[in-house]
Amino acid sequence: MTATGHAVIGTVIAAKIGNPALAIPLAIASHALADSFPHWDPATNRKDKGIKQVTREAFFDVVLGFALSYILIQLLFPQVNIFYAFTIIIASQLLDWIAAPYYFFKIKFAPFVWSYKFQKKIEHRLDKPWGIINQIAIIALLVVLAKIF
Hints:
- This protein is mostly helical.
- It has one domain (3-96, 124-148).
- The protein is built from 7 helices and 2 strands; from the N terminus they run ααβααααβα.
- The chain has a two-stranded parallel ribbon with strand order 1-2.
- The protein is globular, with a radius of gyration of 15 Å.
């Protein structure tokens, strides 16, 4: 799933669960669950795109995720402390942040490699447009449900 998708999921978790002892592990677990749904992300077709294009798309994705989360907090969940929300967002993206040094720089430190290999086992990529449509539908449903309940 994109960093944006994980960020929105983290935003919803922060909005609904005020206890960080529960929200942080849930956010980390949500990453694995979200990646198991067929999805597109910047690394889809990486061999065709090259690492520079993947890096540009990943950077844009991270920025978009934080911006969209900020907007959601301001518009839909204003009761949520912004620093708490961003802590939960980072937790929801944590597996990608841990894998990034291995993925982008080939740093073979055990946690980096473990996170990368773990995600490769659980994720199911789906090219555009359906890989993006799936994510938008899932994320939109989560936001609507969070607002209703």
